[in-house]
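Example for tutorial group B:
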């Protein structure tokens, strides 16, 4: 199948809810992450702590049951993903490359439709597109796309099962973004209220 100037494989249907951690650590965080994953509320948890040290992140990992490691994705300290056998790493401006020899899942953040079009030509497990709605956790971070732009992106094949909606996402909006053609949602603010 040829789309948007790159060869893409058909993707099996995915409906995913991904929770992203708050940027700061807090008491009881490991228990809350475990609860999100074991209750069926979240399929994956992205551990995003941009100011953390490797030791701090490792301490959080050690507080989690190893049976959950295959449902965790790191945004920083990728060496820990290798050491603990985590599910994946999420590329971003701070960490634009996976660790050498990494064989787990790789996902990436996209902040424009043009960036999304470029990323679609890569074998990422999934991509986030943000901000789809006005942010709950970042003041002044407004939706970057109109409904018409998102509809057109879906018609062009940019938005599909490999693209997760991020920005202003709540658990109540998951059905809405699935109907818009996204494969799922990445939730931050609503998960930690």
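The residue assignment follows.
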């Amino acid at each position: 199948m040829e789309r948007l100037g790159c060869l893409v494989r058909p993707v099996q249907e995915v409906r995913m809810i991904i929770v992203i951690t708050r940027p700061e650590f807090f008491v009881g965080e490991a228990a809350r992450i475990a609860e999100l994953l074991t209750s069926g509320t979240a399929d994956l948890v992205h551990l995003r702590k941009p100011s953390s040290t490797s030791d701090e992140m490792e301490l959080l990992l050690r507080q989690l049951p190893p049976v959950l490691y295959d449902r965790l994705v790191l945004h920083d300290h990728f060496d820990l993903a290798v050491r603990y056998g985590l599910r994946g790493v999420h590329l971003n401006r701070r960490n634009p490359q996976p660790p050498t020899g990494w064989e787990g899942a790789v996902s990436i953040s996209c902040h424009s439709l043009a960036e999304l079009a470029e990323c679609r030509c890569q074998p990422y497990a999934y991509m986030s597109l943000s901000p789809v709605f006005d942010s709950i956790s970042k003041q002044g971070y407004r939706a970057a796309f109109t409904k018409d732009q998102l509809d057109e992106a879906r018609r062009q094949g940019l938005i599909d099962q490999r693209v997760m909606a991020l920005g202003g996402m709540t658990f109540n909006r998951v059905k809405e973004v699935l109907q818009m053609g996204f494969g799922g949602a990445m939730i931050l603010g609503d998960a930690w209220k």
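Confidence is low (pLDDT under 50) at residues 7-14. Compare this with the pattern of hydrophobic and polar residues in the output above.
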